[in-house]
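User: Assemble these into one structure.

Assistant: Restating your components, then the assembled model:
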Amino acid sequence: MNIGLDVGSTTAKIVHVEEREVIFSKVVPSHHWTELIDDGQDDRCIVSTGYFRKKVPHCAAITEITAASLGARYHNPETQVIIDIGGQDTKVIDLRSNTFVINDKCSAGTGAFLELAAHYFDIPVGSLGRLHSLATKGAQLNNTCGVFAISEMISQLVSGYSMEEVIYGLHQAFALKISQMVPSADTVMLIGGTVRNTGIIDAINNVLDSKIEVPGAPQLVNALGAALYRERLDDGR
Amino acid sequence: MNDTIGITALVPPELMYACGKRPLDVNNVVPVSSSSPSNKLCAWTAIWRDMILNGGLDIDSLVVVAGGDCHNALVDGQKAELSGMPTHYFFYPFDGDTDYLRSQLEKLVRFLGGIQDERMFSLISDLKAKGRALDELRVNDRARGSDVFSALISFSDLAGNPDIFGKTLDSVPRTDIRYSSRVALIGVPPIYPDFHETAEGFGLHVVYDELPYEFLRLGGSSLDSLASSYRDYSFAGPLKNRVRLIQDELLRRRVDGVIHYTQYACHHTLEDEIFRQHLDYPILTVQGDLPRPSTEQLKLRLEAFAEMLGVMS
C-alpha cells in the first residue's frame, strides 16, 4: 500500500493507494494532521507533500508541484495544465513544458481571499458557490488586490448590488486574476480545496477558453500524487 | 593610495586600473547588506545610493552606467552627485556603435585623469583568461557553481586589487561534483547571497551565470580594442543579440533548465516573456526584492524545479 500525506496551510489530507486504486482517504484541519497517521503503524513509508511536508513523518517529501503533476495525470494523462488553488497560494503547472508559476505574494487569487470575503459577509465559505448560482449578473470588482477588493465590495453593496451579485463579481475577479497565470491550453484541470466552490469553477469557465476538468475529489489530488510517487521510489527513479 | 571609484555596472576595469584608479562595484556590497531603504524601486540601486548618501561607502568618486543598462541608476546616481559626490555618467550604445563607445571611453579616461600604466591591460587580460578557465571547470563538473560564481562576480572590479584577486582565483576549490540537473542562471545576479548554495542543496548545478560571464567575455588593451569588445556588452544592447548569446551558451554548457532571476521593479523583468518564447528549455522565473538569505518561497520554487527536471523528464 502506498500512502500520500498532504499537510497544507489549511487542511491535512491522507490517501491510501493499493494497485493504483484509492482505498482510503481523510481530510482534517492542518493542525490535527497527527490523527491521520495515529494508528500505531510507525514503520510505513509515507510520502509527504504540502507546506509542512518536512515537518511530518516521511520516507520521501516532495513539493506540491510534483505531487499535483502525478495526481492530475492519474485522473487524466492528457491534461495539459493544472491550476492548484490552495489556501495561501495558487500554482499553475504546464505539464507540456515542465514549467510552473506560483502566486504567493498576492492574496487575490487564493483561498484566503475567499475566506476574507466570507468572513465579511459572516457566512460559511462553503456557501459561496450556492449564493453565486443565485445571481443573474455580477458586480464589477477590481481584480488587483484582495484587501482592497473588500472595500470595493462594500461600495458595490452601497450602490445597490445584492450580496449574491457581489459574490458573483468576486468569483469573476478571482478567475481573472488567476487567468493571468494560465497559458493557452486545450485542457485545464482545477484542483485544490477551493475548487469545491462551484462559483469558482463557473467563473474560470467563463474566463478561460480551455476545456475545464475537475476531478472527483480535487482536494485530494496532491495527496494522491504523493502516494503515487512511492512507485517511483520503488523503481529507483 | 589610489583613488577608489564606485561603478554602478560594468565599466571596463582594465581601463580604470590603467588610469591608476581602483574600481569598486557598488553592487557587490548589496547582497550582504541588511538595510531596508526607503523610497526604493530596485533594492540594488537604492541600497548603494543610501550607502553613498550616508557615507557608508569609501569611494572618492562615482561612475554611473546610465545608458543601456540600469535606468534607476541614472536617477540614484544624480542623487549621489547632488550630495557632493564627484560623478561621471557612462553610456553604452544600444546599436553597438564602436565610435560612440570609443568617445565614451575617452571621456571616462579624462574623468579618471588619463592612462598611466598600460601594463594593467595585459595583467587583467591574463586574469580574465584564468577566469574563463575556472568557468570551464564548473562546466566540466570540476568545481562548484557557487565557488565559481563568487569568483566571477568580482571580475567587474577585481576585488580592488588584481594581484590578490589572482591568488583568490587560484584558491577556488577544484573538486568532482555530483548533481541531478545542470542549470543556467540568466538575468541580473540574485540579490540573495546564498542563492547558488541553496540551488546546489536541491541538486542544481549552476553551469552558467549570464552577467559574470560578460565580465570575462569582454576586454581589450587599447581604447580601440576596448570599444570593439565592449560594444557587444549584451545587457546594454538589443535583446535579440542577448538571446542569441544565451542560446549558444546553453547549448555549449549542456543545460537541462534555465533559471531567470528578476529583481523587483527592475525593467529587465519585462524580458521574461521574450526568454520564454526563444529559449527552448524548462524555465523557472524567480524574483527577489531585499537582500536576505534565500526565502522559503524561493526554496520551494527551486526544489520544485529540481524535481520537475529530475523526476518528470
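The beta strands of chain A are 2-7, 11-18, 21-29, 46-49, 60-61, 81-85, 90-94, 99-103, 187-191, 211-213.
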